[in-house]
Write a structure and sequence with these properties.
single chain, 418 residues, alpha/beta, Rossmann fold, Transcription Regulator spoIIAA, 5-stranded parallel sheet, binds iron/sulfur cluster
Length: 418
């Protein structure tokens, strides 16, 4: 039972040992309100006691909204408020704002878990995963000087700043002592890591790899131009390094990229992918693409589609362009109607569905290893699910196994696609 205090007439709850608490806040429409109720029920069923959003909790869930710029602002405010209430809590953003701003919410440290509308039912599984100390996210860099035309981050967060290397390594060592085995190094513009301190991302990965207990290292989003021969050669020699590269493309059309103020061409992007494929066997390359950027014509979009068809990446995260006031893109002529953005997104989602399936199928019959994270029940059988180094989700019968251990086996026999 929770302990209840009365303080100046206010009732205050305190946790009892071993108790888990959660607080929820809802923003936006009736659908959201209904879903927040459903999330509350899920959390209660998982043993969480629900506390008011004004109190310290282990988990804060903000069901966000993005209908206006004000809704965006409120969503961020509530996430920050949660962080202040308990800096050690898991801060979870779910819903519409996540769908539009996903790439920067976790990397910028605003929340620990970001779940889009489609995945709201995965909340419990995702909470279990951090509780099990499998994968740790470390922000090693902040700020950005790239000034993409659609993004406010360079104005909001200023110049690129790298975290102190020794401090990062100490944190990794501490997390590894606490059982974490997989480390994801992230940043707002991770490719800039070390430019202000004379360090390099490759050298940081090498140093993290030398720490006891570090079994896997992943990198957050990179820009294509960091992919040089020396970078690939260095990373391919690091045993714990996971060949999973998120290279933001945004558009496969050169004139759209120029309007976006992105500093590479589609051909440079292609060359980066080819280089990765020459150093790693079947690396996972994932990307972000914006549909309906101002001025994007049917022909320009068709160039992006044909570029992506040809390149065959593991996953394309598709974002319909969202107008942010204060950005250059917001003032551009040729704003694309919402229905067109939606239709173009649907084309890319269909393409990525097929390509992702082909990428995963490549592993059938091969021996792979997964780090066990979550439990799922299918047809009455309990399975552990986990990811390969290339971030392919597989499952293994849970009987006799424990979370946060590795399982090896043949894909399609011991390790299953669920
Ligand atoms: S690289 Fe572009 S999109 Fe990414 S944070 Fe910098 S300005 Fe924004």
């Amino acid at each position: 039972m929770p302990i209840v205090h009365k303080n100046n007439g206010k009732v205050k709850f305190e946790k009892t040992a071993g108790e888990k608490t959660a607080a929820l806040h809802n923003l936006g429409c009736k659908v959201n309100a209904y879903e927040t109720e459903a999330l509350r029920e899920l959390l209660e069923a998982e043993g969480y006691r629900i506390v008011p959003f004004t109190e310290a909790a282990d988990v804060y869930v903000v069901n966000t909204c993005t209908v206006t710029n004000i809704a965006d602002k409120k969503s961020r405010q509530m996430l920050r408020r949660a962080r202040k209430l308990n800096p050690d809590a898991q801060i979870v953003a779910v819903g519409c704002y996540v769908d539009t701003a996903k790439s920067d919410l976790v990397e910028s440290g605003i929340c620990d878990i970001a779940i889009g509308n489609e995945d709201k039912n995965k909340l419990i599984g995702m909470l279990r995963s951090p509780a099990m100390h499998t994968r740790a996210f470390l922000k090693v860099q902040d700020g950005c000087e790239m000034f993409c035309a659609y993004c406010l981050i360079p104005y909001a967060r200023g110049k690129s700043k790298s975290r102190d290397r020794e401090e990062i390594l100490e944190e990794v060592a501490g997390l590894a002592r606490n059982g974490f085995q997989e480390f994801v190094l992230t940043g707002i513009h991770l490719s800039s890591y070390g430019k202000d301190t004379g360090d390099t991302l490759l050298s940081l990965v090498e140093a993290v790899d030398r720490i006891d207990g570090v079994k896997r290292i992943r990198l957050g989003s990179l820009e294509p131009r960091i992919i040089t021969e020396a970078f690939c050669r260095g990373l391919s020699g690091i045993q714990s390094f996971c060949p999973h590269f998120h290279l933001s493309l945004q558009s496969g059309c050169i004139s759209t990229l120029q309007r976006m103020n992105r500093h590479y061409t589609p051909e440079e992007y292609r060359a980066s992918c080819e280089l990765l494929r020459s150093f790693f066997t079947h690396p996972a390359i994932t990307t972000d693409v914006i549909t309906g950027f101002p001025g994007e014509t049917e022909e320009e979009f068709a160039e992006t589609v044909s570029f992506l068809k040809d390149l065959s990446l593991y996953e394309i995260h598709v974002f319909p362009y969202s107008r942010r006031s204060g950005t250059r893109a917001a003032k551009m002529e040729g704003q694309v109607p919402e229905e067109t953005k939606k239709a173009r997104s649907a084309v890319l989602l269909e393409l990525t569905g097929r390509q992702a399936e082909a990428f995963r199928e490549y592993y059938r019959g091969k021996e792979e290893e997964i780090l066990l994270e979550e439990c799922e029940v299918h047809d009455g059988i309990r399975y552990f699910t986990g990811y390969t180094k290339e971030y392919v989700k597989l499952a293994v019968a849970a009987e006799g196994r424990e979370a946060n251990t590795f399982a090896r086996g043949i894909v399609g026999e011991e390790l299953l696609y669920l």
